[in-house]
Every structure is written in C-alpha cells, then in structure tokens.
Amino acid sequence: MGGMSSSDPRTQATPDETFDVIVIGGGPVGENAADRASRTGLSVAVVEAELVGGECSYWACMPSKALLRPGAALAAARAVPGVEASPTLDPGPILARRDEMVSHWDDSGQVQWLDGAGISLVRGLGRLVGPRLVEVSPEDPDADVDDLPATRLLAARHAVIVATGSVPVLPDTPGLAETDPWSSREATSVQDVPASLVVIGGGVVGVEMATAFTDLGSKVTLLSRGRLLGRSEPFASEAVAAGLRAIGVDVRLGVSVTGATSLPDGGARLAYDGPQGKGSVAGAQVLVATGRVPRTGDLGVEAVGLEPGKGLAVDDQLEVQGVEGGWLFACGDVTGRVATTHQGKYEGRVVGDVVAARFGKVRPEEARAAGASGSAGEAPEPWSRYAATADHGAKTQVVFTRPEVASVGLTEAEAKKAGLPVRAVSYKLGSVSGAVLVAEGYEGTAQIVVDTERQVIVGATFVGPDAAEMLHAATIAIVGQVPLARLWHAVPAYPTISEVWLRLLETYGL
C-alpha cells in the first residue's frame, strides 16, 4: 500500500513540537516504553486519547480482579473448618472498592507520575501522517480529522513507539448490535448488576466475568463455540467448566450464536445452534467476549505503507517490519504477539531499552547490543534485555477463575507441534501435604512439559486455589533452562503446596 502523498499539508507543515521519541498510547505498556526510552537523556512524549494508565488500570486487569477477589476470599474461608463465613456477598461495597481501585476513573495520579519522570503528555488521538510524524487530534476516534487548526503536529527526531493495544471484536451476528451488548469495559465498570447475564465467549474475559457476576448475584449463562480457554491444557479447561457449573453458571459448549432479538422489557434473547440442535436463551444483559484485535484501524499506518486493521509485525527488538529507516517500533497487543498486560509491559521495557541504546548517550557496546546504526545484522546475545525473547517460549498467564489457571511456556500440544521431544508429567495438588492446610478437600493439578533431550522444562500449568502464586518458580525454571538434575536440589519447604515440585520430579523418574 502506498504512503501519503508528498503534497499532503500535514507532511509539509512545520511541527508544533519536536521530541526525540514519541510514544502513541499511554497505557502501562506505553508508560514502560516511555520510561525506559527516557533513561539515556532522550526527550519523550506520550500521546493518549483517553485515560493515562490505559485499559488495564481502568477497564481490565485492576477492576476485574477487584470484582473477582471477594468471591475467591469467601470460597477460601468456607473451605477451612471452623471459619464462619457469610453465605452471600454484598455488591455495594464490592463495587465501591472497585471504584477505589480504578481511582474513580481519574488519571491525575498517572499524569503526576509522567511529570515526575520528565515525560511530556500530549492529550489526543495520535495518528501517523508520515515518517517520524504524528498528528494529534482532540476529536474522538470517529470524528473528521481533516480540520488542521484543531490538530497538533509532532515530530520525532529518532523514533515513534506504537503501544495502542487492542479493541474488542463484535461479531456480525444478525441483531446482536441492536441489543446494546457489553464489551469487557462495560462489564468491569458496571454500576447496576443485571438480574441475568448471557456471556458469549469462553476465553479469559468470558470465564472471569461469568465468575464475577455470579458472585454479584446475576444468573449467568455462558455460550462458547469450543471448550473453555481453548489455548490452555485440556485438563484446565475441564476444571474451569466444572468450577463455573459448581457456582451456578449455565455453561453451554459447542454453541454458535445465530441471531439476537431485543426484548420489550429490556434485555435480549439469543438464538443458537448447539450439540442438541437449535436453542435460545434470554438475559437482562449480553456480554460479548469473543476476542480482541490489534488497534491499528485509526492509527494512520497507511501513511507509512502498512495496512490498517492488522497487527504491526515486529522483530524481537520490536522494530516494525516493512518500514524503512529503523524509526518505527511497537509493543504490546498492537503487535499481535501478546495478549496480557504483564507481557506487554515486558515488551515495553525491551523496546524502551532498544531505543535508548540506539539513540541515547550510551557506551558503544550497548549501542551495538541494541542493533544501533552501523551494526546491522548483529543479533543480540541470547536472553539479552534488548530482545523480547520471552515472547516465544516463556509467556505467562493467570486466569482468576475458581479454580485459578496459571501457565507459562508451551502446552504439551504446542510443544509437539513445534517438533520438540516432550513428555508431560502431572500430579494432583490435593495429594501434597500442604494442601490440607489451605483447604478441606483441596483439588487441583500441576503439570510440567519436559523436553526429554535437553532435560529441561518448556511448559507448566497449575490449576487450583491460589495457583497463580506457584507460577513464578516455573517461569524461572523455563527462562533459566534449569536442568532437571539441578532442579532436584531446589528443595521445597514443608508443608507447602510448592512441595508438588518434588512430586513432579519423582513422577518424572528422578
């Protein structure tokens, strides 16, 4: 696709401001990129159209976990004999605490952090209009941006980093848009809990919000085309489905929604095809959680020869491919490589370090390690902080359902598809000595995927109450490529659930 015409007034105009680096997107990913990029003396601006702190702070990670934690805490208390626990949760205080967690959707604290770090904030929607040029409009994303007096033109001396994240997908199911469905934003910022909720989608958002709204008192039905958490190990999917049903969620698998109709008294009825034929379900509210796509549709990428609506392909140093000059970088969801905030922040740190070393005041060896001009073709050292190595084999994720699902690295199926000689070993967490201290009837499973040639772990999954807290040990084992024979000498404390590491290695044959 061709770039913008050289006669376009936005490429000919004198920039209103010039910075060394411009970051488009002020979420946690962009904040990390900006912070690291500024550490070698480069001037950095962050362009943000909404709240500084982004999706995670106000509509995703933080509010969703605030909604999920009360139910998990109550379930944990009920599992210990002798602890008196209230049989119900009070939505009012839960929503009030959620409001506190998101600072009542006020980003002044985040803005203060930018100011303290010496990073300039430019409010508005940032669009690429040419090499190293970013037009910032105060208009909303759907407004006409050709009114040049209402815009500002920023120029980057060295680099532009795109960290615009992703946007939810609304299926083109007949009638669905007319029912005014929720996305994850409306779900996590809810003020009035609906009497009933129909969730379309069995991914992370779908299963977490099905859990949270059941806790809040909604009657929840979840419709999923395939198994829940389809990219997880099958035993994790089965455990989450069983957990949802145990708390009262009507889980219907193998279901494709074919149509939607608004009801006279509010809410909607969804028609679907399922394993037993056609059916329907009604709810006071519908939540669509069928996935997200990289946010490039309103980014102006066509001005630099890229196709809008698709992820920005990057190399391991997060430089965007297909753009000449080595000035355009991207990190987080917009690349299509990651789908979690923590992994995106990791990419932000990598790209910030790369930009700082390439264009800032650093020692020559650091510049070379970051692929600075004159060292083209030099690959960073393995596990260098100038390369997003973890994107390939050490991505981590936690799903805060009951039970929790925590995973890192490759599933058994992914490892086999990659051609690795692997063996999966599992162990029931309830059989570990420490489990009985945590909960009566503790249930869960731990599994490691071992590369049998190198004798190292390449994947791990933990399913059970508070399983998330067990994940980092597995992450270190995978990133460090710790041989099993050495891991055998990492003695777990007794009595803790982490003693499962000993049992896994014994099961493997050590």
Keywords:
single chain, 510 residues, FAD/NAD(P)-binding domain, 4 domains, seven-stranded mixed sheet, 17 helices, 21 strands, 24% strand, disordered N terminus
Walk me through what this model shows.
This protein has 510 residues and is of the alpha/beta class. The protein has four domains: 9-49 and 103-150 and 161-167 and 293-390, FAD/NAD(P)-binding domain; 57-101, no CATH class; 177-290, FAD/NAD(P)-binding domain (3-Layer(bba) Sandwich), CATH 3.50.50; 403-508, FAD/NAD-linked reductase, C-terminal dimerisation domain (Enolase-like, domain 1, 2-Layer Sandwich). It is built from 17 helices and 21 strands. The strands form five sheets. Strands 1, 2, 3, 4, 5, 6 and 16 form a seven-stranded mixed β-sheet that branches. A five-stranded antiparallel β-sheet has the order 17-18-21-20-19, sandwiched between helices. Strand 9 (219-224), helix 9 (234-246) and strand 10 (250-253) form a beta-alpha-beta unit. The chain is globular, with a radius of gyration of 24 Å. The protein starts with 8 loop residues before the first helix and ends with a helix. Keywords: FAD, Flavoprotein, NAD, Oxidoreductase.
- Principal-axis shape equals globular
User: What is the CATH superfamily classification of the largest domain?
Assistant: FAD/NAD(P)-binding domain
The CATH topology assignment of the largest domain is: FAD/NAD(P)-binding domain
Number of domains: 4
CATH architecture of the largest domain: 3-Layer(bba) Sandwich
Count of alpha/pi helices: 17
What is the radius of gyration? 24 Å
Strand fraction equals: 15-25%
- In percent, how helical is the residue content? 25-40%
Name of the level-1 CATH class of the largest domain: Alpha Beta
Mean pLDDT: 92
Main β-sheet: number of strands, strand sense, barrel status?
7 strands, mixed
Low-pLDDT residue intervals, each spanning 5 or more residues: 1-7, 143-149, 373-377
Number of strands: 21
Distance between the termini: 57 Å
| SS class | alpha/beta
